[in-house]
């Protein structure tokens, strides 16, 4: 799953940079930033050297995603909106939320810490990519995205509290994250704004 | 004081997100980012796991600030400009600058390190909130804000060098930060630009 | 070399902030951010307290760069485009890439980790300065800039793999970085976009 996440997130980040007509170097940087930033932040929070700087496999997978974005762009107009990309992105979101929850549990943080690290691991890359592209992070106002990682993290806590083993809790987190994400995309779920709740005099 | 800081900063961050018509999830994220980012950066700089991920109280306080922002917005048009918010924000600034100075002292950094960590602890949250809202951090050009934390940090150093105890130095830092901030807001203090100094041929 | 880097980067960052008519405090912050952010990120990645917070010399050098930017602005219209600044900036880029490669080697990271830390050390400051100025980091789409640090990091790896000593590898990295950067500026080198390669139906 982590493999698919790295490839998918690099693909999505690079596709966005291609659309903005960044040069090849910029395309690679945005792709790598999207693939790695969440995991790097997770590792810094538990004070260890980022995993991506220690193993040779992660960089190869992410560069594969960058290359895939370039190849897809030659054939398609908008690879980042293709259903294939949306599904891969949802799987990536789930993979990274689950990895974050596992690493956080090992680091003995609080229940909030587990949900926070799962969410940051999942959405940190997308947020950095958007900041590099000089726009407000889409995770903040576009749709039901980071919320899926939060729900995944919470389901991990519940499964763990109910005495499920570590791998059951991880599987629950992954299923809840990818499931809510795919349903949200298909159903166009939206979270209301305060103004939208109709409670304020505008 | 730290309690007031967490609530106030979450309140101010969430109020800004409400004004930008972010959804409820985005409102919570900007509020939590404003409340926690300074302290998290401080903890990373002294290489320890962020405190907010280890204790359950900080998240409860910050979520209280988020809720307060929503409640206030229902009654008021601009809760982030209300005098109550400005005073709470000034107290938060002082509380976080003081906490930063204390943690930095314990980590054996240089005198510059103490002032830098005090300032980052105090203003890091506001800067991140503004970046998430896709605008240039207000601390850089709006008014006499981060400067108050710098003055607080410097007063901490002076008090410490004069042989005052740790708690006297902390109190000095807090009083100087909140005092200069409140005077700056009331008096509309401004720091000149290079162009404003009239020394350049424009 | 590190000395020149700190002064040059603080100078360039402050010059940009002066052009945007930031106040004196904002000018200092952007200058210090540009001088320090790369090194701080490097230190966080290898989980040690940032060097700049421990030694008193780095802050003095960076403040010198800030002051120099103000003095130059009084005499020149665009100090950040002056050849003197461009050369100093190229030397800074090389100095920081080399320092990053050395620190990364000592931290036992992978080959990718060495290139990544060298590049981040070199360009992290410029990227943060641009984010603070609320624009997309110029390193991503403007010209042949971060690529020089990547080439420097790769040449460090090659020299090291060929059995050259640590100081030869460091010298190679510095020469390659500053050399490619100066040639790129003089020759107006550009990296193509995917669209520019003419492979896509636009």
UniProtKB/TrEMBL annotation, chains A, B, C:
It is a multi-pass membrane protein. GO terms for cellular component: plasma membrane. It is found in: Cell membrane. The keyword Protein biosynthesis does not apply. Keywords: Cell membrane, Membrane, Transmembrane, Transmembrane helix. It comes from the Archaea. Residues 2-72, 87-159 form the Glycine transporter domain. Its main location: membrane. InterPro entries: Gly_transporter. The chain crosses the membrane at residues 27-45, 57-76, 82-104, 111-132. PANTHER family: INNER MEMBRANE PROTEIN, UPF0126 INNER MEMBRANE PROTEIN YADS-RELATED. This is Trimeric intracellular cation channel family protein.
């Amino acid at each position: 799953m982590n493999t698919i996440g790295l490839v998918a997130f690099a693909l999505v980040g690079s596709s966005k940079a291609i659309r903005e007509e960044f040069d090849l170097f910029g395309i690679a940087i945005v792709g790598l930033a999207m693939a790695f930033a969440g995991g790097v932040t997770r590792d810094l929070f538990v004070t260890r050297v980022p995993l991506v700087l220690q193993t040779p496999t992660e960089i190869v997978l992410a560069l594969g995603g960058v290359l895939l974005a370039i190849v897809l762009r030659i054939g398609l107009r908008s690879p980042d909106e293709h259903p294939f990309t949306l599904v891969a992105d949802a799987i990536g979101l789930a993979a990274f939320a689950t990895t974050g929850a596992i690493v956080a549990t090992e680091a003995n943080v609080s229940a909030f810490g587990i949900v926070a690290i799962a969410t940051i691991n999942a959405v940190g890359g997308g947020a950095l990519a958007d900041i590099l592209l000089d726009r407000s992070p889409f995770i903040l106002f576009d749709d039901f995205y980071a919320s899926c990682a939060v729900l995944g993290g919470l389901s991990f806590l519940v499964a763990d509290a109910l005495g499920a083993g570590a791998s059951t809790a991880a599987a629950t987190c992954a299923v809840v994250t990818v499931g809510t994400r795919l349903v949200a995309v298909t159903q166009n779920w939206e979270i209301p704004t305060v103004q939208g709740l109709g409670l304020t005099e505008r």
